[in-house]
What we know:
Blueprint: E1 2-4, H1 11-44, H2 49-69, H3 71-76, H4 78-95, E2 99-100, E3 105-106, H5 112-135, H6 137-140, E4 146-148, H7 152-176, H8 179-182, H9 186-192, H10 198-203, H11 205-218, H12 222-241, H13 247-264, H14 274-299, H15 302-315, H16 318-326, H17 334-342, H18 352-360, H19 362-371, H20 381-416, H21 419-438, H22 447-489
Antiparallel strand pairs: 1-4, 2-3
Amino acid sequence: MEILQMPALNHTLIREKQESTSKLIMRLSIILGLILTGLILQYATSYTAWFAYLGWALFMIALYQIFILDTFFFILLFMIIMGHWGVITSLILVESGAYMGEILEYGYPTGATMRFAFYILLFFLGAYLAFYYILYPKIYKNPVNIPFLNHSSLIIGFYILLVGIVITLNIIVVFYGSPLWLGMYRTQYWAHVAPPGTEYIHNTLPQLSCISGLIYTQAIKPRWKKLILILFFITLFTEILQGEKFSKLYATTYFFTLPILLNKFMLRNVKINVRLILYIVLVITFALILIFVNYTLTKGSTGLAALTLANRLSLQGQVWWATDRLMGMGTKDFMYFYNHVFGFGVPEDEVGLFYLMSLISPVRAIEYYNMGSSFTCGYPSIIIIGTGYILAIPIILLSGSFLGLVVFFLYEFIRRKDIIPVLFVIKLYFLCFLAFVMGTMQLFISLKFLLFFGGAVCFYYVRFRSNNISKLVANKEELHISNSKNELIQ
């Protein structure tokens, strides 16, 4: 069994990390206070689009503080952070009067942007507090050698699986066509054209890419790293042929680079410089070009593609804007939240995001339900509609704390470089993305959630226990060697 050597942590770096953590919590609290002040001013005066810009600016300042004071945590939460960043950016357009094609309305100022910033930053604060003050100190305790269990046969088996999935998806494109040249959305393609199970196979690619990135960090020979990179780009191209415009491409890229970035920024923070800003701008520009080209191929003209892209930007924030508009400041019966969010005692079409859709856009909700599709970005609307603004605060904090636990598992298993546990926790992380961004919180009572969460807990317990046993054996051997030396000296 190979042993992975873990470097000793520098106590100065640990002390600096603790200081930056305290600074970040204090600054996030101040920003939350400023947003709360803005909310009070909104009610005292009148709603204008300027409050939307102020809420967006404060939200961006908070993200900047997380990035510079704790790059490590920012990387771990990046996928979820970007999901909510898209919503709050969309809300600016909506409160400025943009048209929302799925609910068939023009937006107007309601204060939705400022309220969204408050609740999401509260959510991030809950995750941060759980990760650092409850869980993260365990990482600092005796970072000794860890059993490295990724045998070559396991790695070969993984790549046989990944290559087989990529080949299968490309064969389906050859025989059934691609959504790009059939002129349809991928959900329609999977429902009416592709063979059954294509969507499920396709959706495994982002999670599998994390394992590929993990193996990349372990590869010693340059040619193996090149082959892994080539397979990664082939995977992205396969997803494009399956009709992906951005979300899955972004998820696949994020999960692949996550282990690489975590290895690089273990206890260090990124310094903002011109090179980094240019790199970010380049990535965003490339993503927008890719999306535009994809829409052009689907819609058949650049004019329709531009119109569709503009409409899609406004749709990210429509669920929150419409839900926020329906709510008063009062609270609701908790059983209302319990039944409609988790689906106890109500029909299937009145559960979760579909129920929320039926409230804000009854006609379009029926169309989307029959298509097997849904609106996007339903969190924290799904909580607010059931509990009201006040009772939602502790629930959102607890939701953030649970995410902090999942992020801890994600860090710990990537640090240990164990393929099977990482696969479990990546699935769990993806379920959290669906729940805490898309709003499908009924997943928390599903069998697959219980399976992946139970698996992550069991793997952590087994690895933690085996690590303690390894340390005990090592200490006994060291004591035995020391006693033998003393006997020889005597």
